[in-house]
């Protein structure tokens, strides 16, 4: 032990240490994940503070057998062992929870003292502690956002407004223009370079407050997001359509956005499908990789096969594709080292799995999971013709079934846009009823379609278990009769 972190290279080695009965803390990480790197710093300092505990580290993607054994599908991920048994796990960058869970298996640094962010390690320097505090704050903020849906604070509104006004053309994206972290961000970067405009960018992966706040600020749930002279243009699909029609060029011209010499634009190469080509690859290998990524409408480069994934990340994407009922081809990168290493250069994406749709890189497991949760993945599959185009009735049925109680209203519960919607929100809150909501002002297709679907011409409309309860008058009557809560809990 001795207060240091040890890299584990086989499951047998891990099993031997766990079976010794000594406390063990196992950290699954990935070199490409910033949160993993930050938590690994803390992990190393905790190892110094608890010298009688084994602190073990596993490169999740390089040790599929170990990752498989503990169902690891995201990093950072921690497993805690005591007396030869796994007693707890922790997923994500949560410094406070890591410290307290370590204390639980190893004992406090000093008897009677609790492990907390304020005492995360006798050896931890100020820079590490500052990083830990930031991670803890980010984690707290994300948890709070998952519980409530408040309006934006005046401070955050000002910060976002200052950001969108900071450049004539600004792209909120995943990663940077030189190193995009998703295929959609890369595509918009390529479009802006083709339009020969100078633009600023902001990496929304680096700031959770901006990432979550901007979704409300722009009333747009996904990224990238493109702004021109402080006005929201749209996301990837809109930017592509406007670029292809010539409308984007007109927008830049109308707003007085100057073009720049092509010599000053960083060349992104032949960006077919959003994939940056590299002269480091041989012509033969480049041709082979192009053939592979276009070998099917949907192609997953993974570790193992769909029925036998060799890592949790690959399994997660396979599960998502099957949940979405998407037919797909796969390639086991463990069987071909040339493809495994070459595709990293070809796609400018350093890890696996990698998902391609119609020859365009979508991203890895984290991005695919996020897209599924936001509905962006299904939208992309419909637009690319992979899945049958969703009818308005199909869409409305999904929205109505998205929560046991769903309110279609004008505005949001915190900022209603009409008195009737406000009354229903207040009635539901007074009765302690939890409910989902949809702002019909944000989507005219839903607004008009729901009138026909429900045979109810006005809003708000309240649904319970996919059945229409009624509008404002009916909800008020139910509340006044003391029947509202019982009606919504039958």
Structure characterization notes:
By secondary structure, the chain is α/β, with parallel strands linked by helices. Helix content is 44%, strand content 17%. The protein has helices at 11-19, 34-49, 64-69, 95-106, 126-147, 154-164, 183-194, 208-218, 236-245, 247-254, 283-293, 312-323, 337-347, 365-374, 376-383, 392-400, 419-430, 444-454, 472-480, 484-487; strands spanning 5-7, 24-29, 54-59, 77-82, 85-91, 169-173, 200-203, 225-228, 231-234, 298-302, 304-305, 308-309, 329-332, 354-357, 360-363, 405-409, 436-439, 461-464, 467-470. Strands 1-3-2-4-5 form a five-stranded mixed sheet, with helices on both faces. It has a four-stranded mixed sheet with strand order 7-6-8-9. Strands 13-10-14-15 form a four-stranded mixed sheet. The N and C termini lie far apart (58 Å).
Record the SSE blueprint.
Elements: E1 5-7, H1 11-19, E2 24-29, H2 34-49, E3 54-59, H3 64-69, E4 77-82, E5 85-91, H4 95-106, H5 126-147, H6 154-164, E6 169-173, H7 183-194, E7 200-203, H8 208-218, E8 225-228, E9 231-234, H9 236-245, H10 247-254, H11 283-293, E10 298-302, E11 304-305, E12 308-309, H12 312-323, E13 329-332, H13 337-347, E14 354-357, E15 360-363, H14 365-374, H15 376-383, H16 392-400, E16 405-409, H17 419-430, E17 436-439, H18 444-454, E18 461-464, E19 467-470, H19 472-480, H20 484-487
Parallel strand pairs: 1-3, 2-3, 6-7, 10-13, 16-17
Antiparallel strand pairs: 2-4, 4-5, 6-8, 8-9, 10-14, 11-12, 14-15, 16-18, 18-19
Helix pairs in contact: 2-4, 2-5, 6-8, 7-9, 12-14, 16-18, 17-19
């Amino acid at each position: 032990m001795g207060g240091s972190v040890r890299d584990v290279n086989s499951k047998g080695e891990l099993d031997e240490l766990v079976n010794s009965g000594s406390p063990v803390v196992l950290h699954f990480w990935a070199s490409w994940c910033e949160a993993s790197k930050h938590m690994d710093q803390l992990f190393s300092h905790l190892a110094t503070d608890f010298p009688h505990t084994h602190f073990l580290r596993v490169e999740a993607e390089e040790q599929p057998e170990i990752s498989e054994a503990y169902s690891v599908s995201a990093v950072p991920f921690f497993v805690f062992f005591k007396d030869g048994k796994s007693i707890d796990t922790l997923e994500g960058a949560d410094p406070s929870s890591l410290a307290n869970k370590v204390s639980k298996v190893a004992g406090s640094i000093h008897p009677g003292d609790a492990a907390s962010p304020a005492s995360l390690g006798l050896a931890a320097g100020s820079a590490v502690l500052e990083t830990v505090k930031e991670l803890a704050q980010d984690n707290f903020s994300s948890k709070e956002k998952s519980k409530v849906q408040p309006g934006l604070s005046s401070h955050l509104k000002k910060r976002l407004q200052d950001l969108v006004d900071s450049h004539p053309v600004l792209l909120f994206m995943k990663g940077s223009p030189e190193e995009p972290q998703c295929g959609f961000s890369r595509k918009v970067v390529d479009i802006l370079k083709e339009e020969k405009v100078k633009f600023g960018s902001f990496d929304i992966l680096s700031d959770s407050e901006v990432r979550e706040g901007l979704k409300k600020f722009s009333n747009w749930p996904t990224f990238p997001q493109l702004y021109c002279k402080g006005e929201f243009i749209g996301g990837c699909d809109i930017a592509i359509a406007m670029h292809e029609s010539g409308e984007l060029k007109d927008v830049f011209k109308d707003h007085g956005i100057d073009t720049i010499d092509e010599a000053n634009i960083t060349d992104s190469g032949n960006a077919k499908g959003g994939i940056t080509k590299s002269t480091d690859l041989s012509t033969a290998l480049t041709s082979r990789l192009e053939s592979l990524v276009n070998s099917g409408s949907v192609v997953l480069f993974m570790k193992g096969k769909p029925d036998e994934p060799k890592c949790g990340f690959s399994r997660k994407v396979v599960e998502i594709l099957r949940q979405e009922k998407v037919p797909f081809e796969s390639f086991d990168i463990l069987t071909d080292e040339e493809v495994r290493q070459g595709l990293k250069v070809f796609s400018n994406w350093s890890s696996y799995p990698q998902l391609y749709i119609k020859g365009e890189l979508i991203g890895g497991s984290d991005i695919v999971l996020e897209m599924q949760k936001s509905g962006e993945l299904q939208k992309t599959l419909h637009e690319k013709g992979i899945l049958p185009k969703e009818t308005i009735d199909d869409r409305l049925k999904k929205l109505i079934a998205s929560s046991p109680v769903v309110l279609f209203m004008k505005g949001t519960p915190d900022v209603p846009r009409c008195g009737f919607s406000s009354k229903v929100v207040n009635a539901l809150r007074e009765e302690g009823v939890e409910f989902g909501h949809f702002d019909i002002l944000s989507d005219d297709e839903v607004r008009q379609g729901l009138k026909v679907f429900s045979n109810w011409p006005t809003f708000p409309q309240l649904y319970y278990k996919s059945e229409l309860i009624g509008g404002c008058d009916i909800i008020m009557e139910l509340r006044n009769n003391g029947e509202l809560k019982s009606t919504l809990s039958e």
